[in-house]
Amino acid sequence: MGLLLSLGGSKRGLRDLPREAGYLLLLIGLLFVSAAFSPVWKGGAFFRALDFAKVFVAWVLTFVAVTSLARLRRVLFIQTASVAVISIVSMIRGASHPRLDGVLGGIYSNPNDLAFAIILSLPFCLGFLLRTGSLARKAAWTACLLLMTGALFLTASRGAFITFLVAGAVSLWHFGIKGRRLYLIGTAALMAMVVGVVAGGQLKDRLLAMSGEGLDTSSQSSAYGSYEQRRILISRSLEGIERYPILGVGLHNFSTYSGVWRDVHVTYLQIAVEGGIPCLILYLMFFGRGFSNLRRLKRMADRDPEVQLFAGALHSSLTGFLVGALFAPEAYQYFPYFAVGYTAVLLAVERERRGCEVSLGGSNRAQPQAGTAQDRKPSFKYAW
């Protein structure tokens, strides 16, 4: 119902949906077909595909309803602030929980999922920090960065740590080097060192344990066992892809098929073994469109500075995810899909702004579209 209402009052319609929306719809459709022919559990795969299909409705609603830079800023603010609050609550309640495991319910109960949600929001947190001119708000966003990074380290997720390094490096390239804020590089390094010393003990043990040395503690032994188990799961997923290359074994059925009751910790293998190679191709094409949208924005001259800021944050988030996906089972997490949606929204908003300016320049009677004035000036209500 919300989608239909948004379609009725929006200047964008279904015919304006970008190509990546079609890729996502085809991907979900193939997951339903995969469920129907699953050799493991047809009913379970079907209902899990039905649950995942909600991402398409939310994706379309985001593209159709977010028609101005002010609205996009508001959505990103809500997402980033929510993840910051979740990070703080997890740290407060997780004092007695190793790796913050099970501190919160839902998608944040798993420490790897919690860590990835934090990482994908950190570039936006940095973007809001650089955007605001208020010292109090800068201090608040700085505190959020520190606490979110602290929660990330406490999850001791090795894949998320690699993602953090990649996303952080890309963020520093955009905001520090290209944005001529070289002080960010030293500041970021100092913050990472401080947080690592305070909260990175278990993460360090898990990273060292991959070598198989120093197994004098149960935590290191457990970390090495996890590493060996993941190697076995990768091998089983490759066998599954070879045996069921077209339709896979069905969404979330690999844990049963593997006999280990665990997901393969490589997103690309996860989508390929559960949905088939065609699903993997559509998955890669979908995320490729996110980078294509950002390249189109980059080629536009005289971009709005705020558009450029959020484009850098989106590029950092997506790049980090695609690298981190090599080390974690995140094929069905919503955050990356929304990040691609935000690139489509950002490109559409900038094109509409330019089209409005051309219209105003060509005719004195032309009127700006709704929301354009908000695109040109910051919203004081959401200046965070």
Overview of the molecule:
By secondary structure, the protein is mostly helical. The chain has one domain (2-376). It has 17 helices and no strands. It has helices at residues 2-9, 19-36, 42-52, 54-65, 69-93, 111-131, 135-155, 158-178, 183-199, 201-209, 218-243, 254-258, 267-275, 277-299, 305-324, 334-362, 372-376. The longest helix is centred in the C-terminal third of the chain and has 29 residues, at 334-362.
Secondary-structure element pattern, one letter each: HHHHHHHHHHHHHHHHH
Which structural class is indicated by helix and strand composition? mainly alpha
Name the beta content range: under 5%
What's the main sheet like?
none
Q: Count of DSSP helices?
A: 17
Overall geometry comes to: globular
Number of domains: 1
